[in-house]
Amino acid sequence: MIQDIPGKFVLACIDGSNFSEAVCDYSAWIAKTVQKPLKFLHTIEHRHLPAVANLSGSIGLGARSELLEELTQIEQSRGKLLIKKGQIMLAAAKERAEKNDVPEIISQQRHGSLSESLVELEQEIRVLVLGVRGETHDDESSGHSARLETVIRSLHKPILVVNKVFTQPKSVLLAYNGNEASVKAVNMVASSPLFKNIVCHLVNVSDNPKESTDLLAKAKSILTSTGVEVVSSTLTGKVDDAIVTYRQEHDLDMIMMGAFSHHRIRDILLGSFTGKMLERTQRPLLLLR
Predict the structure, then answer these.
(1) What angle do CA 76, 77, 81 make, to 5 degrees?
(2) Closest Cα partner for 159 from 276, 7, 1?
(3) CA distances from 58 to 55, 61, 62, 234 (A)
(4) Which one-letter DSSP state was computed for residue 5?
(5) Do 71 and 53 form a contact (C-beta atoms < 8 A)?
(6) Which residue of 62, 69, 209, 248 has the lowest C-beta tally within 10 Å?
(7) Which residues pair with 257 in a beta bridge?
(8) Euclidean distance between CA atoms 174 and 164, whole angstroms
(9) So what's the pLDDT on residue 208?
(10) What is the mean pLDDT of residues 187-204?
(11) What is the dihedral of CA 133, 110, 47, 260, to 10 degrees?
């Protein structure tokens, strides 16, 4: 049964990283296409620096209270600067989205961790958009942050992980294996206006051609019944290798797949497929759980 994705708005996480502009552009494209409000979110995480406590204990008792008062004032000033910096980023993101003709834009700044904020907002989220690495990991040329993994594991909403400058997608690779997450992905492609003019490459990695063909045929019938153009293929080999290679050979613009399993210990022991795809894919990754 095809169902629309619930949620009041498209949520974009802005933190000043190198991917913030791309996050803004991809979220604006989604919001405009699905005709939903776009909300920009900036979170301020308060961190206590151990060095401050160590320093306060390394001087004489007479100066300790004076130093702590000064350190408190510095921390307060730092907090104000972070708030102002976030407000400037949110204003710039809103201006950029307005140029892309997004009809309704909301900005919000929250205190606390990103994952906590997203869990509180989850019921209102239609699609979450965020960068593969945050501002604190901008000097790294590859990989993803532990915070991203925490966010993906915490939510049960579609999450678009952005890793490149925006280009409007014309093709998507949908990795399908018949599990609940991949069925959700098929239903999303079938029901969402995002994919009406996008070619969907429906792929299954299997060593059993007959079983794979039957599995793909059922999913393809759902997609074609709603007018989606579908190319279906059975791939062989290691799952992440097969998908990455197929994406590169066909120069596809986006990958869509189920995210982390519920067996975290198994993921740690065997290596997470989602983690490998986050590391290896050079295109935005739309994840569902």
Answers:
(1) 120
(2) 7
(3) 5, 9, 12, 66
(4) P
(5) no
(6) 62
(7) 287
(8) 19
(9) 94
(10) 94
(11) -40
**Coil/strand/helix, residue 160:** strand
DSSP characters over 38-68: EEEEEEE-----HHHHHHHTSS-HHHHHHHH
List, for residues 148-186, the tens digit of each pLDDT value: 888 888 888 999 999 999 999 999 999 999 988 889 899
pLDDT attached to residue 83: 87
Question: What number of other Cβ atoms are within 10 A of residue 237's Cβ?
Answer: 11
d(CA 138, CA 140): 5
User: Which helix (H) or strand (E) element contains residue 105?
Assistant: strand 105-111
Question: Rg of the chain over CA atoms, in angstroms?
Answer: 22
* Higher per-residue confidence, 133 vs 13: 13
Q: State which of 135-149, 158-172, 270-284 shows the largest mean pLDDT.
A: 158-172
Q: Both tokens of residue 234?
A: 């059975």
| Domains of the chain, each with CATH number or no CATH | 9-46+82-162 (3.40.50.620), 171-288 (3.40.50.620)
3-class secondary-structure state, position 186? helix
Whose tokens are 């001087």? That residue is 59
Residue 231 token pair? 């190319």
